[in-house]
Specification:
Cytochrome Bc1 Complex, Chain D, domain 2, two-stranded antiparallel ribbon, 9 helices, about 60% helix
């Protein structure tokens, strides 16, 4: 018998002696084998990574979560797209794109509350001016129709022209905000005026 075979036999015997659990079922013995080092390193590494991830992203909030980072990247992309559209001129699409940008909607709401509540109330349900929360619009359903009305006003109805007071970009922001009021049907709103808008 070779020296190699003797070593193999001795190692096998020692291994079985150290790791057998004493459980046996149907001739099958259960061994309590030591886990390989690579497996243990992965397990401990995963635990350390999870702890660091929790501290960095959830406890100290040093970095944004992947979902928040994605939202930030999408916001940058939307703003870049809006800027490209603005260079080409205002359109229904550019006004609707503003709705997706929270900062623009916050600005639009602030402008609406500051300048429009006297006639439309703070939730847009209408007072002197028409209800902006229903599906009927007096001068057109498209954002560009509404932009024209806000820019030029309707003197016969008491609607002032806001273009000179607010400037083009702020008027566009207000009109974009109006899109968020459509079809919200605020309670106790003024009766619909004009034609219902197609869906």
């Amino acid at each position: 018998m070779s020296e190699y075979q003797d070593d193999a036999r001795d190692n096998r015997a020692e291994y079985r002696h150290d790791t057998v659990t004493g459980h046996e079922y149907d001739g099958i013995r259960e061994f309590d084998n030591r886990l390989p080092n690579w497996w243990l390193m992965i397990m401990y590494g995963s635990m350390v990574f999870a702890l660091l991830y929790w501290i960095v992203f959830h406890t100290l909030e040093i970095k944004p979560l992947p979902r928040e980072k994605f939202a930030q990247e999408m916001l940058k992309a939307q703003e870049a797209e809006l800027e490209r559209m603005a260079k080409a001129g205002v359109s229904n699409e550019s006004l609707l794109l503003m709705v997706e940008i929270p900062a623009k909607m916050e600005e639009g709401r602030e402008l609406f509350v500051k300048h429009c509540v006297a006639c439309h109330l703070d939730d847009g349900r209408g007072l002197v001016g028409p209800n902006l929360t229903d599906d009927a619009w007096v001068y057109g359903c498209e954002p560009m129709d509404q932009l024209k009305i806000v820019n030029e006003g309707v003197a016969a109805k008491g609607m002032p022209a806001w273009l000179n007071q607010l400037g083009p970009s702020r008027v566009q922001t207000v009109v974009a905000y109006l899109q968020t009021l459509k079809n919200t049907n605020a309670p106790n709103g003024k009766a619909p005026e004009g034609e219902p808008c197609p869906e």
